Amino acid sequence: MGKTFAEKILALKSGKDSVVAGEIVTVSPDIVMSHDNSAAIAKKFKQIGINKVKYPEKIVIPLDHCVPAATEKYAANHKEIREFVQEQKIKNFYDINSGVCHQVLPEKGHILPGTLVLGADSHTTTYGAFGTFAAGIGRSEVASIWATDEIWLRVPETIKINIEGEIPPGIYPKDIILYIIGDLGADGALYKAVEFSGKVVKNMDMGGRMTLCNMTVEMGAKIGYVEPDKKTIQWLTPRTNKKYEIIKSDLNAEFEKIIDYDISKLEPQIACPHTVDKVKPVSEVTGTKINQALIGTCTNGRIEDLKITSEILGDKKISDRVRLLIFPASMEVFAQAMELGILQKLVKSGAVIMNPGCGPCLGAHEGALAPGEVCLSTANRNFKGRMGCKEAEIYLASPATVAISSLYGEITDVRRYLK
Amino acid sequence: MSLKGKVWKYGDDVNTDVIFPGKYTYTITDPQEMVLHALEDLDPKFAKEVKKGDIIVAGRNFGCGSSREQAATCLKYAGVGAIVAKSFSRIFFRNAINQGLPLVQCKEAVENISLGEIITIDFEKGKLLVKKRIYDFPPLPESVLGILNDGGLIPHIRKILKIDRPVCVRTAQAEESKDD
Which pairing describes strands B55-58 and A158-164: parallel, antiparallel, or unpaired? Predict the structure, then answer.
């Protein structure tokens, strides 16, 4: 019997010849990521009782969750992180002018195929789009990796998801992953590795693959994975000189399950309040009034997403009932959108262009909701209270659906634009 | 080690936002103060009435969502002796063990346990006593049990690295951020 990607990479990183799903191994990660929570992690690190991190070159810290600082407390938190980074000689530090961790790390060449990346953030799964084993962990664990360069991991079973068919007009990677989460449920892939394959994934750009892997955690998965190909290499080549080895599942690997989807007849999908797996086709929620439309975050703030948004808005004005907030996922995306003239067009349509970062996705700042308000967002979570108010409602959709809905002031089928 | 405690019963997919609301992660850094808001958006009675050694019993996917460790910290400091669930979200599972909070995965037992009843857990033997009926659950793997028995990951690492000296850490704003 062959081996899955997860089995192969965890054998490699634990220094064993071979491991099987279910086994617990001790591994040494290639990269460990933390963000605004790094000050809290530094405090835990010092509780261990040592003064120097073991491998500063493995640590990457971008500030993104509340940038620029919203309050004095946030400012003090950022200041503590900057001081820690200096003290520990951590070179891979990205200050508030960089963007969301899940976009910045790949852009800066820290994410490579066949490597093991752990991050103090649940959406660390995003990096799986590059053939990386990337999982979220807690703060104490990051502190202990800083100290020891080791962590235990259970080798996950793998669910293979084949996505086949022809993508219908108006359907995007976000619709596909929302549909899958709705189908499998919030714990449909609990503890599992999810490997995406099939024609649709092969034809998908890197941004789309990142969207798929980003949201695998919303069905409980440990990692998402897409087998690297020419597109992956092409994307990485200008960003890194480091050598990497592509690791793939064997053709005869033992998958726990293989699930096939044909998306040829898929409608645009919407996750309804207050869980990500409460997914409905747009036709069931069309006409729901919205107060705020948000395009951005680690799920959908890439250049591909902003291009679609601009294409749909064209030279039209958004509804005067709606606030449209745009958060490019990184400064690289921001600059590119500026060069392409996208930002100018979006501003003319009535959008507010925000700085790269997590924005209001987790209720910190820059667009929190009031009681009774409804937000249609391209983010990845819609839990009660998520955007700062438990009496508000959050719907999740693709950038295309959010863009068209901002024109009409209500949830709208994007295929209306295509007619 | 065994534990006898009163049950707080909840359903499926209890997420980290309702366990420890995000808004407090900006202002609350003291674990004792976190306790006052534990499970606030799910069960406002919990924080007021929870007693040391009480046991939370829940359905599938307990602790799903964010990686924020405070979700486990607030329950640990509230005195929760263990959580029994049909399944746990994986990051919450790790966070709880790393805080020294025992978890029991036992699908069959959950159905048979009601709010307010007294149940007994024998962690070493992997037995759960509910209404005179005994349920077996798989004990935690040895390496994971080691972390739990040392009182969590930080004391465990101190033990491994043979660090005895007390630690003095300035507190400042270290808990002022929210994980996601």
Answer: unpaired
Residues of chain B contacting residue A121, judged by C-beta atoms under 8 Å apart: 67, 179-180
CA atoms B30, B10, A275, B89: torsion sign: positive
Contact A209, A129 (CB under 8 A): yes
A191 and A307 inside one domain: no
Say whether both A165 and A82 belong to one domain. Answer: yes
CA distance A49 to chain B (A): 6
Q: Is B113 on the interface with A (CB under 8 A)?
A: no
Task: Report the residue of chain B nearest A47, measured CA to CA.
Answer: B167
Residue in B153, B163, B176 nearest the CB of A141 = B153
pLDDT of residue A182: 98
Q: Is B141 on the interface with A (CB under 8 A)?
A: yes
- Please list the alpha-helical segments (H only) found in A53-108: 72-87, 101-107
Please tell me the pTM assigned to this model.
Answer: 0.96
Q: What is the pLDDT of residues B82-114, one digit of tens each?
A: 999 999 999 999 999 999 999 999 999 999 999
**Interface subset of A 78-117, CB within 8 angstroms of B:** 80
Same domain, A399 and A323: yes
Q: How far is A316 from chain B (nearest CA, A)?
A: 35
Residues paired with residue A196 on neighbouring β-strands, in sequence order: A161, A226
Which CATH number belongs to the domain containing residue B97 in this structure?
A: 3.20.19.10
pLDDT in tens, A388-402: 888 999 999 999 999
- Quick one: pLDDT band at residue B21, thresholds 50, 70, 90? confident
Are residues A304 and A257 part of one domain?
no
- In chain B, which residues have their Cβ closer than 8 Å to the Cβ of A361? 180
B173, pLDDT greater than 70: no
Closest Cβ opposite residue A385 in set B21, B95, B176: B21
Q: At what angle do helices B90-98 and A139-148 cross, to 10 degrees?
A: 70
| A302 plus A227 within the same structural domain | no
Could you tell me the residue range of the domain that residue A327 belongs to? 269-418
Q: Are A139 and B27 in contact (CB < 8 Å)?
A: no
Count of domains observed in chain B:
1
Which one of B72, B172, B180 has the shortest CB-CB distance to A121? Answer: B180
Owning domain of residue B60: 2-160
Which residue of chain B is at minimal alpha-carbon distance from A145? B157
Helix axes A72-87 and A38-48, enclosed angle (nearest 10): 50
Q: Which two tokens stand for residue A44?
A: 């835990």
Q: How many domains does chain A have?
A: 2
Spans in chain A with pLDDT lower than 50: none
Give yes or no: residues A245 and A318 share one domain. Answer: no
pLDDT for residue B17 = 87
ipTM (interface predicted TM): 0.94
- The tokens for A163 are 């996505």
